[in-house]
Amino acid sequence: MTTAPESPAARTAPGTSPARPSAPAPAPAPAPVPEPRHRLPGVLRAGWSAVGLELRGYFRTPDTVFFTFLFPVLMLGIFGVAFESSGDVGARPDGTGGISMAAYYLPGMVAAGLLLAGVQNLAVDIARERSDGWLRRLGGTPMSPVSYFLGKAGMILITAVVQTALLLAFAALVLGVELPSDPALWLRFAWLFALGIATMTLLGVALSAVPRSSRSATAVVLPIVLLLQFVSGVYLQFAMLPEWLQNAAGVFPLKWLAQGMRSVFLPEHFAEIEQTGAWDLGLVALNLCIWLVVGLVASRLTFTWQRRS
């Protein structure tokens, strides 16, 4: 009688235990999951991209750059040189405290720059894009209307900051205007600038509904902007205007923005020649806020994506 041969695994040396099967290899550690990037929401990201597109389009149009970006600088240079021979203005009875004409016109040009950047630039630009059908085609693109307006507002803010910095540098370095050294005055300038550019931006969007075509946009907007500058103390000394014209100018925001800027860049005793004999910064802020709300409401009520027949 024969027996089956033992398997090699079963044969062990005397006095030893049978071999055990090897343990399975450990499973590889899972790959680390990359942490999610903190990215802007889609609307904000598209709006940021739209800012770059708007800036490139802005600086590629020479007429827009001249009439809304370089125009205040050129006008300040013309007024500063033309009236240089007339001497200082606003001196006290003892002959001190006078400033040059370039220094006197600087705050008005700063306020006019915000008007041109916000009202004139946006009103003409949006009216042209509506007339050409670009806004109507916007619905077929990934860009949302919110991103479109973020791009416009971002472009206005950046160009206004650069324009104002260029204007102040030109006044100080070329025309010899002494800029304020008190930090409190620059803080006042900061909130006036922020409130002013926000107000002018919304008013520009609202005014864009007035022109019926791209051809009539400049003809409609430019006279309004020029008239406001002449009656609001930009090109003419506000104290020289008749009282009824001063009261009429007080209805519009540019007069208050120019008055606020004068409180920043002019000596304190110049407040005596204002209409009420003071800077009235509370009234400046109140009137700008009122026009901010007016611009917001008017934009919501009058803005359309398609050209009116």
From TrEMBL:
<feature type="transmembrane region" description="Helical">
    <location>
        <begin position="217"/>
        <end position="238"/>
    </location>
</feature>
<feature type="transmembrane region" description="Helical">
    <location>
        <begin position="103"/>
        <end position="127"/>
    </location>
</feature>
<feature type="domain" description="ABC transmembrane type-2">
    <location>
        <begin position="63"/>
        <end position="309"/>
    </location>
</feature>
<feature type="transmembrane region" description="Helical">
    <location>
        <begin position="65"/>
        <end position="83"/>
    </location>
</feature>
<dbReference type="InterPro" id="IPR052902">
    <property type="entry name" value="ABC-2_transporter"/>
</dbReference>
<feature type="transmembrane region" description="Helical">
    <location>
        <begin position="281"/>
        <end position="303"/>
    </location>
</feature>
<keyword id="KW-0472">Membrane</keyword>
<protein>
    <submittedName>
        <fullName>ABC transporter permease</fullName>
    </submittedName>
</protein>
<feature type="compositionally biased region" description="Pro residues">
    <location>
        <begin position="21"/>
        <end position="34"/>
    </location>
</feature>
<dbReference type="GO" id="GO:0046677">
    <property type="term" value="P:response to antibiotic"/>
</dbReference>
<feature type="region of interest" description="Disordered">
    <location>
        <begin position="1"/>
        <end position="38"/>
    </location>
</feature>
<feature type="transmembrane region" description="Helical">
    <location>
        <begin position="189"/>
        <end position="210"/>
    </location>
</feature>
<dbReference type="InterPro" id="IPR047817">
    <property type="entry name" value="ABC2_TM_bact-type"/>
</dbReference>
<keyword id="KW-0812">Transmembrane</keyword>
<dbReference type="Pfam" id="PF12698">
    <property type="entry name" value="ABC2_membrane_3"/>
</dbReference>
<feature type="transmembrane region" description="Helical">
    <location>
        <begin position="148"/>
        <end position="177"/>
    </location>
</feature>
<dbReference type="InterPro" id="IPR000412">
    <property type="entry name" value="ABC_2_transport"/>
</dbReference>
<dbReference type="GO" id="GO:0043190">
    <property type="term" value="C:ATP-binding cassette (ABC) transporter complex"/>
</dbReference>
<dbReference type="InterPro" id="IPR013525">
    <property type="entry name" value="ABC2_TM"/>
</dbReference>
<dbReference type="GO" id="GO:0140359">
    <property type="term" value="F:ABC-type transporter activity"/>
</dbReference>
<keyword id="KW-1133">Transmembrane helix</keyword>
<keyword id="KW-0046">Antibiotic resistance</keyword>
